[in-house]
Amino acid sequence: MTFSLSNPSTGLSCRLALVGLLILVGSGCIHAPLNAPKVGEPSETAGYSFRERVPARVNEGETLFLVAFSGGGTRAAAMAYGVLEELRRTPVPGSQPARRMLDEISVISSVSGGSVTAAAYALYGDALFGSFETNFLKRNVQGKLMGKTFNPCNWPRLWSPWYGRSDLAARYYDQILFHNATFGDLADRRRPFVMLNATEVATGIQFWFTQDIFDNLCSDLSSYSIARAVAASSAVPVLLSPITLGNYAGSCGYEPPAWVSTSNPEGEGLALMQRGKELAILRDSTHRPFLHLVDGGVADNLGLRPLLEGLTYMAAVPASRQGLNLTALRRVVLLSVNARSSPENHWDRKESPPGLISLAMAAPSITMDRYSRDTVAMMGMTVEMLRQKVLTAESGSLSFFPVTLSFDELKDPEERHYFLNVPTSFFLTDEAVDRLRDVGGRLLRESPDFQQLLQHYAKAAGKG
Questions:
Q1: How are beta strands 205-208 and 105-111 bridged, if at all?
Q2: Most buried one in 67, 339, 350, 388, CB count within 10 A?
Q3: How many Cα atoms within 13 Å fall on the side-chain side of residue 313?
Q4: Within its chain, how far is the Cα of 51 from the centroid?
Q5: d(CA 186, CA 310)
Q6: What share of residues in the chain are helix, strand, coil (percent, to 5)?
Q7: Are 394 and 58 spatial neighbours (Cβ–Cβ below 8 Å)?
Q8: How far apart are CA 417 and CA 406, in angstroms?
Q9: Distance from first CA to last CA of the chain, Å, rounded?
Q10: Residue 226 CA to chain centroid, in angstroms?
Q11: Counting beta carbons within 10 angstroms of the beta carbon of residue 215, is it exposed (0 to 12), middle (13 to 18) or buried (19 or more)?
Q12: Over pLDDT 70: what percentage of the chain?
């Protein structure tokens, strides 16, 4: 058989092959944007940092109010949003001038789907409540991302080894929600300090998008895209690709704080010693010139660990309390919003084991759920340690209010079954979104621990 370019089918094949070759060659030039290196030496008062923003929030009143939003796709985003709505509706008892409980929040630590809500609230404040439902919660985000993945116009990007599905997701998040905002846009806003959490996939280390952590890499957070941080926090392994950061450690004169190298093998020093080792691992830019970030739930699906480590840091490192007016502090609140699911699988009713795909999808949630329960227990121990060793001694009178919200608290078995079986995805029906918003607010409103907190406010106002 003789092949000729005059043969229509042969000509078409050649043209398609040529187009494919051009796309393949062109894709090698496409890179996702990396974080910028730090210009000059890191400053203790520059950037979106814990040490710069949190003391000011604490010193404004008598409450350190810490919030953690768990992962869980749109399920988690909607539940977290419902909790914010309820805090917005709830006045601080006896406050003059009148304040809302929403205004009391000092820090939000978030993971995956919870990071969408946390980041959007940090950026927009009260304006979020008029747009978030339409812009994100009731939008088929998952379907749109799948459509973009299968769109031939995006194939040159996706065929590049330096561009993945999460980079495509970040572009879409900017289009519908964040509009190219960066962490620099958060620096001057009097809203809660937000810590978006991801996981460095090569080491399993939890990674926070704060300038304190970026200083460790000699990098500048202020110019970094909020949408890319959210994409990293929600980059479920296999389904989505990692978000990549450049590691410039060693190029800016950064010196780790003293606590990183302090050996304290007892009590509260253990957590800080471990964190110090993790930061040292990330600083090894010779062996790790790039960091690859995936879903924060891989390391901690509740988002509680950064808050626990922050409290431990306050307890173990006296220098960390400089600038904090602890004598006025009367209450510490830790609000954990846990949108975990526990779908029925009936695996134990069959002799045949679950399939590879089913097992791969379920295994991470099983592991994260067990770790989450341990984290909640650690929260209680950390609170007690702080009360006994540090804060009570400095403030005189201090109360702690750990408030945990989860679907397990629902008394109606049918309702509990419904919410525990809401899938983890970025597309839910409008009915599911409405029910999740409602149940988030209701769980907070009916929480005995939250009611005790409100009573404590009222009692303190009465004394005043």
A1: unpaired
A2: 339
A3: 19
A4: 19
A5: 20
A6: 55, 15, 35
A7: no
A8: 12
A9: 98
A10: 11
A11: buried
A12: 73
Q: How confident is the model at residue 155 (pLDDT cuts 50, 70, 90)?
A: low
Give residue-wise pLDDT tens across range 297-314: 888 888 988 888 887 777
8 A C-beta contact, residue 91 and residue 98: yes
**In the predicted model, what is the mean pLDDT of the chain?**
81
The pLDDT tens digits of the residues spanning 200-211 come to 999 999 999 999
DSSP 234-246: T--BTTBPPEEEE
The amino acid present at 302, given as its one-letter code, is: L
Give me the residue label for tokens 């964040």.
Answer: 178
Give bridge partners of residue 245 from the DSSP assignment. 291
Verify cis geometry, omega within 30 degrees of 0, for the bond prior to 97.
Answer: yes
**% of the chain exceeding 90 in pLDDT:** 45
Partners of 338 in beta bridges? 406
pLDDT in tens, 6-53: 455 555 555 544 455 445 444 456 767 889 998 776 665 568 887 666
CA 308 – CA 334 distance, rounded (Å): 9
CA gap 215, 81 in Å, rounded: 31
Kindly state the average pLDDT of the residues 213-229.
95
Sign of the C-alpha dihedral, residues 34, 39, 42, 48?
Answer: negative
Looking at residue 409, the DSSP 8-state letter turns out to be G
